[in-house]
Amino acid sequence: MLLAEQRMVANGNKVNRLFTKSFRELSKYPDETEWVEFKCNCNDPQMIGEYISALSNSAALAGKPRGYLVWGINDEDHCIEGTTFRYRRLKKGNEELESWLSHLLTPYIAFQFFEIPMDGVTVVILEIPCADKQPTSFAGVEYIRIGTTKKGLKKFPDKERELWRAFDSLPHELRAAASNLRDEEIAAQLDYPAYYDKLALPIPRNIEQVFEDFKNEKFLKMSDAGRWDVTVMGALLVAKDLKKFENLHRKTIRVIWYKDNSRIETVREKEFTAGYVRAYEEIIQYVMTIIPQEEVIEGGIRKTVTAFPEIAVRELLANQMIHQAIDQRGTTIMVEAFVDRLEFSNVGAPLVSVERIVDTVPVTRNENIAGFMHKCGICEERGSGYDKIVTATSDNRMPAPRVVNQDNQFTKVVLMAKTPYDYMAKEDKLRTCYMKACLAYVKHQAISNADVRALFGLTDNEMAKASRIIKETVGEGLIKPLDHGAAPRYMKYVPFWA
Q1: Which of 188, 200, 326, 342 is the most exposed place for a label (fewest CB within 10 A)?
Q2: Domain boundaries in the chain?
Q3: Is the distance from CB of 310 to CB of 288 less than 8 angstroms?
């Protein structure tokens, strides 16, 4: 037998063993449920399509990742009788059953048939993903299970409203990224040593304890068929390779290093495919080695000074990971390194107004991911990320970061290198002055001419330049005097919203 054929046989045997276990688990239910239907020999394509819609919607309503249509079990006593149903041979017109069903389902769901020899007979499982974002319809009609009966969803408006609420109630991060995995497959795909290393905990000797810890972290779920589901959160955080998860291969992080200040010529591009728990430190180290840096001597000690403060890079990368719109299609998370700037971009619009980004309360799309990253020290969940970034940039006399909401679909943050005052764009000067006022206000302070001079590295003889920046920032409506009656020499300023 050829090697390829041997592998096919081995894989087929694994699938059979896996779904034999699933079949027996499902047959243990004392009655049919709203998300499991038992049949003996039903081979009506129209009926099968309607059941796919009904079980998909009912699974979502019941909070189950999948529904099941099972052939070969007696409805009454759940004895395994076997079935004559053969989905590969069944056609509708001249079209194969699976293809015909796919064309009539809206939206498309990746249902799968499994034909399994068991106890001397053949049984069949149709595994049906739960509805996601909208009800699953067949031939333009949405179905639901009421008890053990299949009905049109439109006849039950209360159920329809409840179903739409269910789509919003389960966060995308806790939905399944991979299903039907055995213990050894979980160990092969999830980097559990990295998890325990990040938490400074010893690796359990018993692999079952690892699975229990991952289940408590919401990385894994035990399905009703007795198998493991990896959640989106689990894959994003501790996957060995995100490329192996079909719907998450675009959630890897790319770092692109350009030769100068344009995207015309690339020096190098590197993609980090590991889960974020491991990738985070690797990306930080890589970025800090490719950005411009120089050696200086301070107090007789030689030290390396980078063009961008590491704390700002850390905070912005963590923000990308935590605040990305996981369910939104688009580009990967990117860090682009130019000679004069770093650009961080991710899918998903900013969750708060750009103008209020410094003083905002903590808000995130992915609460569970944020919670774990706080637990392992990557973020603080205090809404202080941009406070740290603006503090770092102002301490280094750099322009404040530029935060851009692109078409309400993407977020881009531009971290700009230190620029002499006379060469800095007016827009950057005004934004930097405003951000400094925001940072001061959250500390119950206000900024003065002296603070602005220190911010831009101006001397006492350049008070006029600082006054001009303050005047233009006031003119743009970004800051306002704290006390209109104060003498010009003692005038202080706060953000417009203060």
Answers
A1: 200
A2: 3-170, 178-242, 252-418, 424-498
A3: yes
How far is the CA of 230 from the CAs of 199, 411, 415, 440, in angstroms? 20, 28, 35, 44
186 vs 427: CA distance, rounded Å: 51
Whole-angstrom Cα distance, residue 202 to residue 200? 7
Structure tokens at 198: 């990040």
Residue whose structure tokens are 């955080």: 237
Largest CA distance in the chain: 96
Three-state DSSP string of the chain: CCHHHHHHHHHHHHHHHHHHHHHHHHHCCCCCECCEEEECCCCCHHHHHHHHHHHHHHHHHCCCCEEEEEECECCCCCCECCCCCCCCCCEECCEEHHHHHHHHEECCCCCEEEEEEECCEEEEEEEEECCCCCCCEECCEEEEEECCEEEEHHHCHHHHHHHHHHHHHCCHHHCEEEEEECHHHHHHHECHHHHHHHCCCCCCCCHHHHHHHHHHCCCEEECCCCCEEEEHHHHHHHECCHHHCHHHHHHCEEEEEECCCCCCCEEEEEEECCCHHHHHHHHHHHHHHHCCEEEEEECCEEEEEECCCHHHHHHHHHHHHHHCCCCCCCCCEEEEECCCEEEEEEECCCCCCHHHCCCCCCCCCCHHHHHHHHHCCCCCCCCCHHHHHHHHHHHCCCCCCEEEEECCCEEEEEEECCCCHHHCCHHHHHHHHHHHHHHHHCCCCCECHHHHHHHHCCCHHHHHHHHHHHHHHHHCCCEEECCCCCCHHHCCEEECCC
The closest alpha carbon to 83, from 124, 24, 118, belongs to 124
Q: What is the pLDDT of residues 214-226, one digit of tens each?
A: 999 999 988 766 7
Q: How far is CA 96 from its chain centroid?
A: 36
For the whole model, what pTM was predicted?
A: 0.76
Residue 107: cis peptide before it, omega within 30 degrees of 0: yes
Domain over 3-170 is classified CATH 3.40.720: no
Torsion of CA 205, 207, 209, 215, to 10 degrees: 150
Name the fold adopted by 178-242. Answer: Arc Repressor Mutant, subunit A (1.10.10)
Name every residue whose Cβ is closer than 8 Å to that of residue 35 and which is 6 or more positions away in sequence: 55, 58, 59, 62, 64, 66, 67, 68, 145
Q: Going by C-beta distance under 8 Å and a sequence separation of 6 or more, which residues neighbour residue 186? A: 211, 214, 220, 228, 230
CATH of 424-498, one of 1.10.443.10, 1.10.10.10, 3.40.50.620, 3.40.50.920: 1.10.10.10
**101-159 pLDDT, tens digit each:** 998 999 888 888 988 887 788 888 898 988 888 899 999 999 999 887 889 999 999 98
pLDDT at 51 over 90: yes
